[in-house]
């Protein structure tokens, strides 16, 4: 059995996206870092991280965004936040400055994964 060790990105800090030598990562590199629950998507030739959640109410969606915004602001790296049909939350993360994914995106996704969101989320059937 092959075990892939994914680094604990929650211990890292996002770096400035203004570095001239920062480049978008390859698909292979992105797949090696993808956090649990996130999907790698390509839109208009640009790779992004994407994840969706279903929240209990519209206001729980706003609370969800506030928690994510606090993490994003602390990291200086800001995702695209979408609230669709009152209770469907979608987050897209990519480094706009390079037109693709960098380690910053995976750091932010990992930190979002560590948020305690269960009180905001709808329960799935069978839970």
Automatic annotation (TrEMBL):
InterPro entries: PCD_sf (IPR036428), Pterin_deHydtase (IPR001533). It catalyses: (4aS,6R)-4a-hydroxy-L-erythro-5,6,7,8-tetrahydrobiopterin = (6R)-L-erythro-6,7-dihydrobiopterin + H2O. Its EC number is 4.2.1.96. Keywords: Lyase. Pfam families: Pterin_4a. SUPFAM superfamilies: PCD-like. The keyword GTP-binding does not apply. Belongs to the pterin-4-alpha-carbinolamine dehydratase family. This is 4a-hydroxytetrahydrobiopterin dehydratase. The gene is LOC113708902.
């Amino acid at each position: 059995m092959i075990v892939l060790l994914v680094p604990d990105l929650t211990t890292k800090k996002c770096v400035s996206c203004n570095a001239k030598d920062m480049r978008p990562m390859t698909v292979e590199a992105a797949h090696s870092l993808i956090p649990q629950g996130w999907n790698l998507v390509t839109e208009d030739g640009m790779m992004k991280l994407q994840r969706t959640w279903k929240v209990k109410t519209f206001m729980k969606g706003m609370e969800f965004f506030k928690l994510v915004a606090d993490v994003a602001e602390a990291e200086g790296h800001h995702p695209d936040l979408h609230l669709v049909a009152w209770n469907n939350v979608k987050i897209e993360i990519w480094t706009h400055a390079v037109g693709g994914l960098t380690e910053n995106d995976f750091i932010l996704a990992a930190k979002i994964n560590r948020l305690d969101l269960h009180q905001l989320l709808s329960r799935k059937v069978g839970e």
